[in-house]
Design goal:
Chain lengths: 581, 103
């Protein structure tokens, strides 16, 4: 056991702990000063991160096992940096929000995600993993309605399930390797068969990354939060999972296919969805899909791409959430059918939203372009032709639901007649900074590239080659042209208010049919069996009666004590019953 | 570009710039010219990859060498997503209060 002093020092030096302390303290700060205080703690944490530089810190030996609470290497640093940027922007954006619990979660949740990213061993990762689940649920609960309470409980159950699976995976992993170190995790044993420890951990990460069929919690919980809460939620859990996958499962072939499915199935759900915050929740699935593919390919280029894209995505995805949030703040709705035409009175928000849309669509000159190309090129370099086509298809899909649908139905489209004021200054400030980062990274990606884990690869990479620009412009511009043609021909489907089933369709429609069928079959079987049984019982009773009944042959030899015996039995039973009652 | 449903805006209000004919015409013209220009670029050797990733040995189609492939793919796939995707509603769409009634 380590001495108390070094344990305290190891904990206190952790930037994530600084943020957590800030989260607890900010609850006691008056509302007028609270957000300044929160920003100060983000600055303190960022300073500590910068001051520490790269390396392992806070290694302790507890019960004979080495625990590294803080590992800052190139991979962890990228995420740590962007988490700080995002945390600061979220605090700024939610300046109007006076709710204590939300303020706590706005710091504690990024802190937990940061702690997870900086964890050098699996035990530390597990602790932060669970803290992230618990801290974030306050944001789901924040609106305080019954619907958000129930959604929050569902969210918590799924997040805790992920944590429990992670713990199970960690223990199995420890039994096999004798180490809690968090490095590459083997998914297969030497014979090629799947290892339970690897699969369980992959699933634990997969729940948080919202793998296909494990993704519903994102659309269920995120859009139900408050305006600023949704933005905070949209960032950290899935990106912590992306980091964990990049750390543990880089190069796992399975991820290529899982990621490819993730990129294209949400496109269709996003197309028909009316709630624009839900559209963006589907967009998270799609975007994380690109990163998962990059991690699965596992080359230096694709890993740089996955990590760099996570960095940029955090900024432009939240910019889009912020723009829709600003429209919702002013109009009270995020539904496409109730929005539209807001460009007249919210022109600045509209321009900022369009910048986010250009970025997520990966137009040259914006943040998406300089990082997404690395993933798609990484796939092409491995000659994964169909995956490559799938990613291009998904890129057209991104343009549809995030690049066009979000700005078009919020700010253009049919005129809702709503003439709200421009977004409040704090929201605008957060959006302006995000938009500036989108353009800044797009035009001058070198500082971001300097943070990426595989420097030998990125040093020779130039995103602005003529073929890359030409290919991307063709893909995107012609897709926009397709949109214009569909609108002119009136073939673009109108938005309709509806609740759309997702994976719950499986149990609500075919599941219900199967259940109904099974119930029917069981009923028929039961009745048949009962009839057979009843017939037999009746016949047996008749025979017994014939032999033992008053007229039966054996009745003649009944002893007189028989009646006394039965009386005793009945009395005994009555006694037992009386005792228990 | 923006569709007219006209009735919503206040009677005395001037039409917004994005709803005016000149803007729609300008937007469409710029878009069409940009599309044609982008497609034209792919015919210029400088804008083609020196070493395409997909060759006859490792892929069924050498799409990168086919000028205008990305334009065509973008246009067709976008249309496909919208025209096919909307039918998903028939399968999964329910009335807006579907979940509320069960909670």
């Amino acid at each position: 056991m380590t001495s108390g002093n070094s344990l305290f020092a190891a904990i206190a030096m952790n930037p994530a702990v600084i943020l957590t302390v800030g989260a607890v303290l900010c609850v006691f700060i008056p509302a007028a000063l609270r957000r300044f205080f929160m920003l100060a703690f983000v600055a303190a944490s960022a300073t500590q991160l910068y001051r520490l530089g790269l390396g392992n810190f806070g290694s302790l030996t507890i019960f004979g096992e080495t625990v590294t609470m803080l590992r800052i290497d190139a991979l962890a640093r990228v995420f740590a940096v962007v988490f700080h940027i995002a945390a600061a922007l979220n605090i700024l954006y939610g300046w109007h929000d006076k709710d204590r619990a939300s303020a706590f979660a706005t710091l504690a949740y990024p802190a937990a995600a940061l702690g997870g990213v900086l964890a050098g061993d699996l035990i530390t990762l597990f602790v932060w993993w669970e803290l992230a689940a618990i801290a974030s649920v306050f944001l789901v609960f924040a609106p305080g309605t019954r619907a958000t309470y129930v959604a929050g409980m569902r969210y918590l159950a799924i997040q805790i399930l992920s944590g429990v699976m992670l713990l199970a995976g960690i223990l199995l992993h420890f039994a096999e390797t004798g180490s809690f170190a968090f490095n590459a995790i083997a998914l297969h044993d030497p014979s090629g068969a799947y290892k339970v420890s690897g699969v369980v951990m992959l699933l634990a990460f997969g729940i948080k990354a919202a793998f296909p069929l494990l993704h519903n919690w994102v659309q269920d919980a995120y859009p139900k939060s408050t305006i600023s809460g949704t933005i905070v939620l949209s960032i950290f859990t899935t990106k912590l999972a992306v980091y964990s996958l990049a750390r543990g499962f880089a190069g796992a072939q399975e991820l290529i296919y899982i990621g490819a499915v993730m990129t294209f199935f949400p496109i269709f759900f996003a197309l028909i969805e009316n709630d624009l915050r839900k559209v963006l929740s589907y967009s998270i699935n799609n975007q994380v899909g690109f990163m998962v593919v990059g991690i699965g390919v596992g080359t230096a280029a694709s890993l740089n791409g996955a990590v760099g894209y996570a960095f940029c995505n955090i900024i432009f995805e939240s910019l889009l959430f912020m723009a829709v949030g600003a429209a919702m703040f002013r109009t009270g709705t995020s539904k496409a059918t109730e929005l539209g035409g807001l460009y007249r009175t919210m022109p600045i928000t509209m321009v900022l939203c369009v910048i986010g849309a250009f970025s997520i669509s990966a137009f040259p000159g914006f943040a998406g372009f300089v990082t997404k190309g690395l993933i798609i090129d990484g796939v092409a370099e491995q000659h994964l032709f169909w995956i490559w086509l799938a990613l291009l298809f998904a890129s057209a899909g991104v343009l549809e639901h995030a690049g066009i649908k979000i700005p078009y139905f919020t700010f253009f489209g049919h005129d809702s007649g709503k003439r709200p004021k421009e977004a409040p200054p704090a929201m605008l400030a957060a959006m302006v900074i995000s938009a500036a980062l989108c353009i800044g990274i797009g035009v001058y990606p070198e500082p971001l590239y300097a943070l990426l884990p595989h420097q030998e690869q990125i040093a020779n990479y130039n995103p602005y080659t003529l073929p890359h620009i030409a290919e991307q412009l063709q893909l995107l511009l012609w897709a926009v042209l397709a949109f214009a043609v569909l609108i002119l021909l009136k073939w673009y489907p109108p938005e309709v208010p509806s609740a759309n089933l997702d994976t719950d369709w499986l149990y609500r429609v075919p599941g219900r049919a199967v259940l109904r069928w099974a119930t029917g079959v069981t009923r028929v079987l039961w009745i048949t069996c009962w009839k057979i049984f009843q017939g037999r019982v009746v016949r047996i009773m008749e025979r017994i009666y014939a032999v033992h009944g008053p007229e039966g042959g054996l009745a003649r030899s009944w002893p007189n004590g028989f009646m006394a015996l039965w009386t005793a039995v009945v009395l005994g039973l009555a006694l037992v019953l009386a005792f228990f009652a | 570009m923006t569709e007219h449903h006209g009735s919503s805006h206040a009677p005395g209000e001037k039409q917004g710039w994005a709803d005016q004919r000149w803007f729609r015409t300008l937007f469409l013209s710029v878009l069409v010219i940009a599309c044609l220009a982008a497609a034209a670029l792919s015919f210029i050797p400088e804008f083609q990859k020196e070493h395409p990733h997909f060759t006859s040995e490792n892929a069924p189609f050498q799409t990168e060498e086919f000028p205008g492939f990305f334009a065509l793919y973008g246009f067709i796939m976008f249309s496909l997503i919208v025209l096919v995707g909307q039918h998903l509603r028939k399968l999964v769409a329910r009335k807006e209060t579907y979940y509320d009634e069960r909670e």
